[in-house]
Specification:
This protein has nine helices and seven strands. By secondary structure, the chain is an alpha+beta fold.
Length: 204
């Protein structure tokens, strides 16, 4: 039997049975020693702040300029719901990409950068997708190039240029079926995507 201390808990690794976990007897799951937890801001210590969502933390830390700026940028890309202390291993691929995007949005707007995103809208509510698209267009307006691999029709409809690969999936795909602005792709005869893009463009 082996005891392994990890972040806020102790893992008891048994030789022939599944391991088990228990709160750390020193920090009681808070991940910080007593001296650190004595330091508070507006009545909350670091452990209590880290369990706040980004939305809640943005309000709580609104008077701290550096923190407020970073948190607002996360909210702008649709990431108001994760906890501040949420482990990176619990984030989806789309969430991880949007965190990187938020980091880029806070940097100096120099332009001439290439951003390649793989389905960043995965798992997002439509209202959050609208927020994300607004930020992607901000990058483009600043002189950058944004390439997005996507199936979301809202994303496709707002793109400057669409490359539709097909005509099918797997071995039946891999060829450029249509390319151009969304309106042109919507008229492509061999594209399985075209009818859906056309229907999306017809919406107000």
């Amino acid at each position: 039997m082996t005891w392994v201390r990890r972040e806020g808990f102790v893992a008891v690794e048994l030789l022939f049975l599944p391991g088990t976990y228990a709160p750390c007897p020193t920090c009681h799951g808070a991940r910080y020693n007593a001296e650190t937890l004595e330091v508070t801001h507006q009545g909350k210590n670091i452990a209590e702040v880290l369990v706040l969502t980004v939305d809640a933390a943005a309000e709580f830390l609104s008077a701290v300029p550096a923190a407020s700026r970073s948190l607002e940028t996360l909210r702008e890309v649709g990431l108001g719901y994760p906890r501040l202390g949420q482990p990176a291993t619990e984030l989806s691929g789309g969430e991880a990409q949007r965190i990187k995007l938020a980091t880029e949005l806070q940097r100096a707007r120099r332009g001439h950068a290439l951003y390649l995103l793989d389905e960043p809208t995965a798992g997002l509510h439509p209202s959050d997708i609208a927020l994300l698209l607004r930020q992607l267009h901000r990058l483009v307006d600043a002189g950058n190039t944004v390439v997005v691999v996507e199936h979301d029709l809202d994303t496709i409809a707002t793109a400057d240029w669409v490359i539709d690969l097909g005509p099918g999936g797997g071995d039946a795909g891999g060829r450029v079926v249509a390319a151009g602005p969304p309106a042109r792709v919507a008229r492509a005869r061999r594209s399985a995507t075209a009818p859906y893009v056309a229907a999306r463009l017809a919406r107000p």
